[in-house]
Amino acid sequence: MTPVWLMRQAGRFLPEYRALRARYGFLELCRNPAAAAEVTLLPVDRLGVDAAILFADILLIIEPLGVGLEFAKGEGPVIQRPVRTGAHVAALPPIDPAAAVPFVFDTVRTVVRALGGRLPLIGFAGAPFTVASYVVEGGASRDFLHTKRLMYEEPEAWHRLMDLLAQATARYLNGQIAAGAQIVQLFDSWVGMVSPIDYRAFVQPHVRTVMKALTPGVPVIHFGTGTAGLLAPMRDAGGDVIGLDWRVDLDAAWEVLGPDVGVQGNLDPAALLAPPTVFKERVREILKRAAGRPGHIFNLGHGVLPQTPVDHARALVDMVHELSSR
Ligand code: CP3
């Protein structure tokens, strides 16, 4: 049976999550291990997924940088004082995850205890490029021009920022592993914005730093979107499983990656807005392309959209289990 879990499975499409969010701010929820553990476990029974995904955020570890991280209502993350120049980068303090996010490790321990070995817990962190893009842009971006300007014009500062984030990320993930996370996922969500040449020069060395520093023996999922042209260098940077968005055929992408890595993916999250009878064809197609090979984890190509009916997500999980066990 093909395992299935969904990125952002504990997010805003769940009414129970929205009810909690009516009472608590996002950061407040993340900083409260009992509440964050509760949110982590919400989709486990509700959806019947094969893994729990830690409720936290990739940006939590940047708080010690003093850049003014906030989660504005309905807008996603906002960084009040973005880091745009070499002088800004030089002034950044190092990040000590044990001091910055002890609550995340407490959440991991609480969840692992509650799961009692029933299912694995997936811990996660942002990859250096994706986290750097928020720190430099000050929030979400379409074109990543501030990020690319720093990269091209002040390469030394760029590498310094990326190294600072890589060191912190490795310690953040190892802290989650030490607390009991059985799998970790590195999110390079926006890396598809760079060319393969720039990936190799400005991104890959730092992903490698993270991967090489991780506690051995824990499976690592390396995720990105828009990465059709980056699959081989992403694989070379590290990870046991490579995440695929929906803009590639799963079998063609796996062919490029080769047999030594698994793949995660790759249904378009928007497909879940349609009724199950409609998206069933897409699910079948993905399973056909995976052809029952071990090492396929069924997932969406990106996070669950807030508009997704819970019934549809549940139907997807059941469908994957049923179709893949025939
Ligand atoms: O089940 C899960 O996957 C929940 C854990 C999770 C969250 N963020 C909770 C969250 C995970 C794995 C993340 C990772 C994350 N955060 C990424 C990489 C994954 C991806 O989807 O690409 C990124 C880029 C971020 C940064 C971030 N945090 C953004 C862009 C936003 C806005 C999200 C949106 O959907 O609009 C957040 C906030 C956030 N992180 C929410 C949740 C549940 C919504 C917060 C709210 O309740 O308002």
**Average pLDDT, all residues:** 97
Shape: globular
Number of helices: 14
Q: What is the alpha-carbon Rg in Å?
A: 19 Å
Structure description:
- Helix 10 links the parallel strand 5 (183-188) and strand 6 (220-224).
- The protein is α/β, with parallel strands linked by helices and 326 residues long.
- The mean pLDDT is 97.
- The chain is globular, with a radius of gyration of 19 Å.
- It has helices at 15-23, 26-30, 33-47, 86-90, 97-100, 102-115, 128-137, 145-153, 155-179, 196-213, 231-237, 250-257, 276-290, 310-324, and strands spanning 52-53, 69-72, 76-79, 121-126, 183-188, 220-224, 241-243, 262-267, 296-300.
- Helices cover 49% and strands 13% of the residues.
- The strands form two sheets. Strands 1-4-5-6-7-8-9 form a seven-stranded parallel β-sheet. It has a two-stranded antiparallel ribbon with strand order 2-3.
- Helix 7 crosses helix 9, helix 10 packs parallel to helix 11 (231-237) and helix 13 (276-290) packs parallel to helix 14.
- Coproporphyrinogen III binds at residues 7-12, 21, 26, 53, 55, 57-59, 71, 76-77, 124, 130, 140, 187, 189, 302-303.
- The site of coproporphyrinogen III (CP3) has 23 residues, from strand 3.
List the SSEs and their pairings:
Elements: H1 15-23, H2 26-30, H3 33-47, E1 52-53, E2 69-72, E3 76-79, H4 86-90, H5 97-100, H6 102-115, E4 121-126, H7 128-137, H8 145-153, H9 155-179, E5 183-188, H10 196-213, E6 220-224, H11 231-237, E7 241-243, H12 250-257, E8 262-267, H13 276-290, E9 296-300, H14 310-324
Parallel strand pairs: 1-4, 4-5, 5-6, 6-7, 7-8, 8-9
Antiparallel strand pairs: 2-3
The structure holds coproporphyrinogen III.
